[in-house]
Each structure stands twice: as structure tokens, then as C-alpha cells.
Amino acid sequence: MIQRTCRKRWLWLALAVGVAPVFYLIGALVGAMVPSATSGAVHIGRDHEISLLSGPIHYDILLPLDAEIRTRFGFAARAGLPLDHPDAQWLVIGWGAREFYTTTGDYSDVTARAILKGVFGDRSVMRLDLAGELPEHPDFQRVRLTSAQNDRLLAAIVESFARDAAGNPIWLVGESLSGSDVFFAAHWRFSLFRTCNAWVGKMLRAAGVNFGIWTPLPISVRLSHWLHLEPSASSTSDQRWRRSQVTSQKRRLAGLPRPCQNRASREPRGSHVAKFRKRLPSSPD
Fold it and tell me: Over the chain, what is the mean pLDDT?
């Protein structure tokens, strides 16, 4: 009798482990489809444009590197990020689990400890890097914002940085993936339900952008963008980008920049930024 009971428990456990990912995926898709605001809202004067850059497991937010961005993120320059480089055009920002984000150069570096901490909870970090001119490619999703939305987005991103007693962002000295990026301590703990992709959705919703209520996976962000943002895109660059997205599906792996390469490539995560930075020659002394 005891043996039969134990067998049933193991069977139920195995069933739960097998079914849980299915429910997680369903939730990730439903969360992307449910809008955070009333759809169909009309925004006048959408003069600002940001980009979302996707990889197999991670999304970054790319902010145009103008004077306002350089001022708001001046603390990154003091940490060694050359915001004033003449060829730098975009500030790349991502949020993620500290153990996984700061120690995993490529997938061969992934440890059981990093995975478990990512699943059950880990401290979070902000990663900042620079990029040059962006190519037309389906891995880049454009988002157009009003001035008010842009201000709220920047405020939400800045508030994601943890600060010391003096109110300064906490630079994690010595942490780097690409050799050109910098890490800072961040608010909130990373988990399966609060992922890097969910953070992207959180930032867009904080800006007042109509987006999915929960976007834990890259497919969630992509689906939410397609459902809630693409129909309202009106600029010529947006239309050109959407056409290129359709015609480029068969060339997605044609050596174009991606944030997370597969294990065989042996390139570090974040190498999409490193490739862009090859266009940024060293500034003269």
C-alpha cells in the first residue's frame, strides 16, 4: 500500500512538472494579448521613437542617444560608458538576473546555480551598452511615443536603478559581458514571473503605452507589439520596417546582430552590441 501511494505521488509530481510549462506558455500568450489600456486610443505628436531588440531569451530597450539621454544617464559615463562617443547613436538598456546576466558569456557558461536562482529568485541588475546605426531587421521593433510618454518611460527606467545612501546608482565595478558594457544594481527580484521581458512590458506600460499586461517571454513582447502597437504605427520608417520584417523571415540567421547567440557560435551574450561597437572607433586622446 505504501509503495503504491509513493508511486502515485511521483506520478502526480511528474505530471505537474510536465504540465506547468504548458500553462506558463499559455499565460505568457494570454498576458500579451490582454491590453493594459483601451485600444484604439489616438496619440497626437508622437515625435519620439525607441527600439526593442530581441534575442532568443531576452529583450533590450534602445534609447536614441540625444542630449537628454546623455544627461539623465550621466552616471553611466562616470562608470566608463563613453556616452559622448561621436559614432554612438543608441543607449542599450536591459534588466535581468544578476547571477545569470553577469556570469554567462555564452551558453556553455550557464551553471545550474544560475538557472536555479533565475527560476526561484535572484537579485536583479541593469546592463547598459552603446550601439551605432541600426540596420533594418525584424529583430528591431520600433515604438513611437508622445513627449509625455517618453518622459514617463525615461523616469520609469531611471527608477529601476537601485541607489546608495547618497542617492547614486550602485555601479557593479568589474562586471562586464562584452567588455564595453557596465552593470548597476537594480530594484526588484528576478523570477519566472518577473523576467527581463516582463520588465520591458512594465516600462512601456509605465509610459502609458498600450501593451500586454504580462510579457515574460520574448514571444510575449513580440506578440504584444504586433497586436497593440503595429496597427497604429504611422511613420514611413515604421512602414518600411514592417515590410522588411515580412521579407526577411527566411534570413533571420544570416549573421545579423542578435543579443543571445547559440552555444555553437561561442559568441558572448550581448555580442549584438559588441558588433555595433565595432563601428565605434576609439576616440582620439
Answer: 79
CA distance 227 to 204: 14
| Structure confidence at residue 138 (pLDDT) | 63
| Strand pairing class (90-97; 59-64) | antiparallel
Please state the φ and ψ torsions of residue 74, each to the nearest 5 degrees: -60, -25
Contact 128, 160 (CB under 8 A): no
DSSP sequence for 72-129 = HTHHHHHTT--TT-TT--EEEEEEEEHHHHHH-SSGGG--HHHHHHHHH-EEEEEEEE
Kindly state the average pLDDT of the residues 96-124.
78
Q: What pTM was estimated for this model as a whole? A: 0.77
> Do 49 and 145 touch, CB atoms closer than 8 A?
yes
Calculate ∠ Cα 86-88-93, nearest 5°.
Answer: 150
Contacts of 264 (CB under 8 A, 6+ apart): none
Contact 24, 202 (CB under 8 A): no
Q: For residues 25 and 13, which has the higher predicted lDDT (pLDDT)? A: 25
Cα end-to-end distance, the chain, whole Å? 79
Are 263 and 240 contacting, i.e. CB atoms less than 8 angstroms apart? no
**Residues 143-155: pLDDT tens digits?**
999 999 999 999 9
Q: Which residue has the cell 504611422?
A: 234
